[in-house]
Amino acid sequence: MNTTFKRHVGIVAIALVVLGTSAVTSTAFAQDSSNVASAKVERKANRMLARDVRKALERAKFDVDDVRILAKHGMVSLDGTVPDGDQLSRVPDVAGRVHGVTSVASNLTVREEGR
Asked: Which of 11, 17, 88, 115 has the fewest CB atoms within 10 Å, i.e. is most exposed?
C-alpha cells in the first residue's frame, strides 16, 4: 500500500508540473500576442496622426510636397524643405494645433531656388 500511495503522489506531482508549465507558456503567449496587437494599434495611431498633420498643412495651403512627417506618441517631427521663410516659421505652428500633437520638432529648411 505504501508503494502504491507513493506512486500516486508521484503521478499527481508530475501532472501538476506539466499543467503548471503549460499554463505559464500559454500566459506568456497571450502576453506576446497582446504586445503585438498593441504595437500594431500604436503604429496605426502614429500613421493617422502624421496623415492628419499633413492634411492640416495642405488645408492651410502650405507646400509640403518635400516635407517628411513622422509621428510617435504625439510627438511630430518635420523634416525637409519649404519654399520660403514664411512657411518655415508657420508650418510647425499649424502642425502643433492638430488634435493629438503634443510637441513638434521642426528640421525644416528653405528650399534653394531652382530646386
From this structure: 115
For residue range 34-46, what is the model confidence (pLDDT) as tens digits? Answer: 777 788 999 999 9
**Max CA distance (Å), the chain:** 98
Q: Does domain 2-110 have CATH number 3.30.1340.30?
A: yes
